[in-house]
């Protein structure tokens, strides 16, 4: 990463943690092209993350974790994505979910404590599998077609989940399922057994190494104590800001690549590198505007989430806006970077080509653009005059 003083690093502890993650990111960057080309899951990256203690970042201190703030988590997610967007987005679901469980307290405490201790001791990871082909994104409110039927000592769960990020490496996960006898949807903690299979369907344009395959449950068992019954405290969805942090990290990598190119490339028609050209300098200025705007909104939103606990639900439109701006600006930054570099940016040997594909995936991560715009419209219309 660039050596300039990041204005969003606030103290020496954050600086030291960021430096350690940058070392991981550099390692992951060296592996990213092959995993992207082959569409393989980077198990070695997750072994490194486990060894570095990254998986326990958001675990409460009482269970042996680091209990970092959302703001601090975004600093690290941004840096990981600088090296490999797929790895950062995938692990972001784990650390983000643990943060969500920590602040919302939606899990029964004994169940959550067991998960946290397993994360710290064994490097266990978690994610929630909710998307389905028929119901689409869970953020749209569709009823799951996966069903949970009461059985001796618990529930039998049958269905198929799509977009199941981290599927190759998880030994337990949460699934949403419809409970016919109660006419409602519920969440269950499921452990991988012979009744759970992964169907390798993930063959996509971008984010090719997240392992977001389909997961098929054929009467998988969840004990009575593994149903997540409480809704917990509404945290406004601020933990989802781990997503835009990744796309800003990708955009920063593209920006730095283009800057280095502009500083060093001198065609034989010029006496200086192309960074001296007014048109190139204007494009660089446009990149900076997009990137700095996105980062300022993102870190402001995270700081407010950390500080204003009682107001988190009312800040939901702010969190959505930060995601909307971050992703769309990141796409613009990558596009401008490719304009500076020119036709060679289309080569599979250029990381810009991968950044271009990866960054577009942000449009399909929650909350989607139209949902954000609807939230902002609702907030504006619902204002009352003093």
TrEMBL record:
<dbReference type="GO" id="GO:0016491">
    <property type="term" value="F:oxidoreductase activity"/>
</dbReference>
<dbReference type="InterPro" id="IPR009100">
    <property type="entry name" value="AcylCoA_DH/oxidase_NM_dom_sf"/>
</dbReference>
<keyword id="KW-0560">Oxidoreductase</keyword>
<dbReference type="Pfam" id="PF02770">
    <property type="entry name" value="Acyl-CoA_dh_M"/>
</dbReference>
<dbReference type="InterPro" id="IPR046373">
    <property type="entry name" value="Acyl-CoA_Oxase/DH_mid-dom_sf"/>
</dbReference>
<feature type="domain" description="Acyl-CoA dehydrogenase C-terminal">
    <location>
        <begin position="244"/>
        <end position="362"/>
    </location>
</feature>
<keyword id="KW-0285">Flavoprotein</keyword>
<dbReference type="InterPro" id="IPR037069">
    <property type="entry name" value="AcylCoA_DH/ox_N_sf"/>
</dbReference>
<dbReference type="Pfam" id="PF02771">
    <property type="entry name" value="Acyl-CoA_dh_N"/>
</dbReference>
<dbReference type="Pfam" id="PF08028">
    <property type="entry name" value="Acyl-CoA_dh_2"/>
</dbReference>
<dbReference type="InterPro" id="IPR013786">
    <property type="entry name" value="AcylCoA_DH/ox_N"/>
</dbReference>
<protein>
    <submittedName>
        <fullName>Acyl-CoA dehydrogenase family protein</fullName>
        <ecNumber>1.-.-.-</ecNumber>
    </submittedName>
</protein>
<feature type="domain" description="Acyl-CoA oxidase/dehydrogenase middle">
    <location>
        <begin position="130"/>
        <end position="218"/>
    </location>
</feature>
<dbReference type="InterPro" id="IPR006091">
    <property type="entry name" value="Acyl-CoA_Oxase/DH_mid-dom"/>
</dbReference>
<dbReference type="InterPro" id="IPR036250">
    <property type="entry name" value="AcylCo_DH-like_C"/>
</dbReference>
<dbReference type="InterPro" id="IPR013107">
    <property type="entry name" value="Acyl-CoA_DH_C"/>
</dbReference>
<feature type="domain" description="Acyl-CoA dehydrogenase/oxidase N-terminal">
    <location>
        <begin position="12"/>
        <end position="98"/>
    </location>
</feature>
